[in-house]
Amino acid sequence: MSIVIRDVREHELDSVLALNNAAGPTILPLDAARLRHFFETAEYFRVAERDGNLAGFLIGVGSDSAHDSSNFRWFRERHDDFFYIDRVVVASRRRGGGVGRAFYADAQSYAEPRYPMVACEVFLEDGSNPVLLFHGSFGFREVGQHVMPDTGRRAAMLMKDLESHAWIAGTYGDGLPDVPWLRSRELPAGGQEAPRSTGTDA
């Protein structure tokens, strides 16, 4: 069956929270307040739907975000302009079915008109090799390692160059076509951070 990637809806936050906290040690836990903050501020917060059921989610922010993750700060101390994948979670029953690949393809389609690079991290621990291979197959490379001060966990810091960004920026500037797949997420009332624009109607 097809995988549908779309913006999260407010009534789905409890289900997203349950997915996150059932994902195991490779994903940091969330509480409801933290998830609500992402809902109100993250420029990319999308879910995957398969067979009518929630199959996963991905949250991403731009380098000018006020995000307080130490991993995000590590990248910002070294790079000026990037899209950061804070977390991607796929429901256990859906793993291996293409949901993760669909998310990364969609996130890249969102990021490439806006940013020259994508950043993320993978925790280095037993069982991390398949995750590193997954990211390597998408063109990510390790640019360093970081130990999170609050957890003591070591992560491989990964980045991917978005090769079409320079051409898109040079060709279209701020005047990208007003088409659905290029539009930024509309933040709920009270959201603090505006998504990066790709044109007057985006």
UniProtKB/TrEMBL annotation:
The keyword Transferase applies. Transmembrane segments: none annotated. InterPro entries: Acyl_CoA_acyltransferase, GNAT_dom, UCP028520. Keywords: Transferase. Residues 3-163 form the N-acetyltransferase domain. GO terms for molecular function: acyltransferase activity, transferring groups other than amino-acyl groups. The keyword Transferase applies. This is Acetyltransferase. It comes from Lysobacter defluvii IMMIB APB-9 = DSM 18482.
